[in-house]
C-alpha cells in the first residue's frame, strides 16, 4: 500500500526517498519507535523488499531519513508568501505564528506526534541528537531573525521563549491534557500578541517596580 500524506506536494509524484520518509513518519505515529523497521517501511510505502535498506542501510540512517522528511514537511506548513516580511511588527508576527500553530493543530497533528517520537529517540542516541539539532536550526534561525527584525533587544533569548511557548502549547493540545480543546486562530493570535508585546515593549514602570507604592513584598 502506498503511503499518502495530507501535505504531500501535488505538483509532482514523490521520490523514492520521500516515500520512504513519509512511510517512516507514518509508522512512528501509528506504532511508535518500535514499529519503525526497514521491512515495515517497505510494506507501508508499497516498495519491493530491500528498498529501504538500499536507501538507508542502518537504523541511524533510517532515523535521519525520517528527521529530514519531518523537516521538509514542516517547512511547508506556511507557504513563502505567508511568512512575515523582515521588520514586521508584533501584530503581523502574531498573525503568522497563529496561522502556523492552528494548521499544526488542525491539519498536521500527525507531524507533531512523529516529531515527539524523534525528539525522544534523539535523547537516547547522541549520534541522532546532533543531526536532529542541526535540522532544527532551520526553524530556530528564522524565528531569531524575525525577533531581531521586530526590534527585540535580545532576539536569541526571545526566540527561545517564542519557540518554547509554541512547543508547550502544541504538546498540550496534541498529546497532553488539552488534546480535545484546540484553540481557535483568534485565540492563538491573542496569546501571541500578549507574548510579543511583553517582549518587545517591556513591562510598564509600575509593573517593573511592583506597583505605584514600589516593589511588592510577600506578606508576613
Which features characterize this protein?
mainly alpha, 220 residues, 66% helix, disordered N terminus, single chain, elongated
Order of helices and strands: HHHHHHHHHH
What structural category characterises the helix and strand content? mainly alpha
Helical fraction equals 55-70%
| Weakly predicted, low-confidence segments | 1-6, 204-208, 214-220
Overall shape: elongated
What does it look like?
- This protein is mainly α.
- Helices cover 66% and strands 0% of the residues.
- The protein is built from 10 helices and no strands.
- Helix 1 (16-31) packs across helix 6 (109-124), helix 4 runs antiparallel to helix 6 and helix 5 (90-107) crosses helix 6 (109-124).
- Residues 1-6, 204-208 and 214-220 have low confidence and may be disordered.
Task: Provide the fold topology.
Blueprint lengths: L15 H16 L6 H8 L5 H5 L3 H16 L15 H18 L1 H16 L1 H24 L5 H20 L10 H17 L3 H5 L11
Helix pairs in contact: 1-2, 1-4, 1-6, 4-6, 4-7, 5-6, 5-9, 6-7, 7-8
